[in-house]
Structure formats: C-alpha cells, structure tokens
Amino acid sequence: MNSQNLVVKHGGTMNEGLIDFSISVNPYKPKWIKDVFKRAEELVGRYVYWDDLELELGNMVDEKVTVVAGTTESLYLVGMYTKGRRYIIPTHTYGEYERIGKIFGSKILKLPISKIYESVKKNDVIFLCNPNNPTGKYYKKWELKPIIDVAEDTGSLVVLDEAFIDFVREKDEIRGENIINLRTFTKSYGVPGIRVGYIIGRNEIFKNFRMPWSIGSLGYAFLEFLIDDNFKFLKESIPKVWKEKKFVEKELNVKSDVNFFIKRVGNVRCVIKKLVNKGIFVRDCSSFNLPHHIRFSLRTHEENIKLVESLKEVL
User: Fold this and answer.
1) Rounded to two decimals, what is the model's pTM?
2) How many structural domains does the chain have?
C-alpha cells in the first residue's frame, strides 16, 4: 500500500489491507458475537431500556453501575458533571481528557504523575488512565494512594479510566467515595464497533445525565449475551493474550502491563511508512507528546510474528 494514501483516524486506520496494530483490543472475539447481531435485529424495531440488565451486570461485578455507550460517553458525562472545575491530567496519557476539559470550560494542568499530589487544590478533577495509555503502565493501589488521599482531603474527584484493566494479571480494586471508575467492554471483547461500558460511582447523577437509548439495540443484545456468558470469554481469551505478550516482549525488548507497547524508534514517520509498505500499521505517539515513539498492540500469533519480523527489519 502507498503510504501517501494512508487515512488515519483516532481509532485506527481507515485503509483496508493493513494489519492494524494501532488499536489495542483483544484479537479474539466471543463465539456468540454473530448471535448478538441476530438478536439486535429482533430488537431494532423498538426502544430498548436496560434497567434490568444494568442490575444484573451490577450483581456480576458486585457494584452499583451506570451502563453507558463505552468510555467515550462516560467522559462526556464526567465533563457535564464537573463543568468548570480544574482538570489535572498526567503527561503522556490519553488525549480525550484534555479535550473534554476544553469542551466544558475547565482549566487544564498537566503534570508528571509523581508530581500530581503536590498540586491538588479544592474541588479539582484528577484524570488517571490506569493502565495508562500509551505507556502500558499499571499503577497499584499503594502507588496512587498519595493522590487519592489528597483528593479526599480537598474534596477533589479522581476519575480512574480502567479501559484496559482486564488485560492486567494482578490488579487491585481501587474504590472510594471520591473515585469514579470508568470501565468498557470494547477493548477486552475486541468489539470497538459495539459501544457498551459502565461507570462505578455517583450512579444517580450519571443516570440522570446520560443520553436515553445510547447503547441501542446492538449494545443491548451484546449486554444480554455478556451477562449470560458470565465473563467466561475473558477467562478463556485473556491468558492467550498474556502468552503472546511474553513472546513480543522477548523478541522486541519491550515491557508493558497490558496488551500494547510503546517503543522509541527515532524517525516515527519514516518507520511507519516502511511498516505500511509491509502491510502493517502502528500508532504514532506524537499526540501523547512522545514524538519519537510508536505504539503497537498484540494480535494473533501469526500476525505478531509478522510485526516482530517487520520491526526488526525496519529498525
């Protein structure tokens, strides 16, 4: 493929024929995913209400939850709720936090995560992507404790974006009165086109703020099957991802706590151009203020072999 004709969007490349390592989702999908579409077709002629499914999901995760159309809707709801408050955002993290802050008129303070607890003032909103995108670093509860403690002391809010947490081997349950947890099934179920996730914390507020029918018939059907599956798919597929993680870490000398990696490559545009010519697309990390790095995810073993071989040749 001619790299001059490459069309790139926020969620990956629009060009067919490329193996897209830029989107960090589970390369495996549930066996029942086709049945989801059949069920959605049955539901498409009416408005869907998911109150009962919301309760069932909450029982599964042992929390009160607010079902939303993925993390993106969650962030907009947080923006509405915290409109005008100062946002503290770590450097080298997901760019949507800053964008949401600007949309809703918030002042933005960007700091290294190790410096955040020193700068928190009354009623701040602290965004933490955990595991972090794009670095793949997962922060344990004790590592975040100084931030959580100062947020509680100042009446501030900690927004924990846990979109990739299902890929972490050993994880903590980080909860609190001043903590909002954002979760999504997009990544761990490999279905970015199906928008379903949930929020833990401030449930009555977010249920009032959310858009009616936002997940639609497709999201509703997906949630039905997910609840019936009772996370069996994750228990079967995530260990396969961990196995591929070991392979890629060894071959490319990279480390991560999740299903994607960043690597310093120098001239990013040149590297991406060469990889595109080999049929592979990776993420330019310039938007994360890492202009010399690329990010790539884990896919199937055969595809990972091609990535490893191509990167070794290019670098």
Assistant:
1) 0.92
2) 2
